[in-house]
Amino acid sequence: MRTSPIIQAIVNPKMSGGLSGAHTAVIYGSAFVVGYLAYQWHWWATILPIGAAFVAQAYYKNQFRHDLFSTEIRKNYNQMADRYHPWPRENLRGRGQRPKGFGRDFRC
């Protein structure tokens, strides 16, 4: 039987500090903006948003340790959910077709 190696760097998403790049940018970008606004009030108030960013990073790092694609799965579930649509929809082409990302065009 012929096998080929799987290169994990190609298959898995890019990570930065245990998070995907988008999560890192959103968490720390918003923390520093809120920290700057809090600095206008009191200098010590900048500690609170940055501390919250570290807690959020630890939470998402733990999530990604168990499943790298957990946020993509959750995003797809929020779009499609478990609702049954018995009537045809305009955005679906053909009989019994699902939109991309919902079990269509995936390798088994």
Structural class: mainly alpha
Please estimate the helix content: 40-55%
**Tally of helical segments:** 4
Distance between the ends: 19 Å
User: Uncertain segments of ≥5 residues (pLDDT<50)?
Assistant: none
Overall number of domains:
1
Q: What does the main sheet amount to?
A: 2 strands, antiparallel
Q: Strands of the largest sheet, in order across it?
A: 1-2
Number of strands: 2
Tell me, what's the shape?
A: elongated
Radius of gyration: 20 Å
The fraction of residues in strands falls at under 5%
Tell me the series of helices and strands, N- to C-terminal.
HEEHHH
Task: Indicate the mean pLDDT.
Answer: 76
Give structural notes:
This protein is mainly alpha-helical and 108 residues long. The protein has one domain (13-108). It contains 4 helices and 2 strands. The protein has helices at residues 8-11, 21-41, 47-66, 70-80, and strands at residues 15-16, 19-20. A two-stranded antiparallel ribbon has the order 1-2. The longest helix is centred in the first third of the chain and has 21 residues, at 21-41. The chain is elongated, with a radius of gyration of 20 Å. The model has no long low-confidence stretch (mean pLDDT 76).
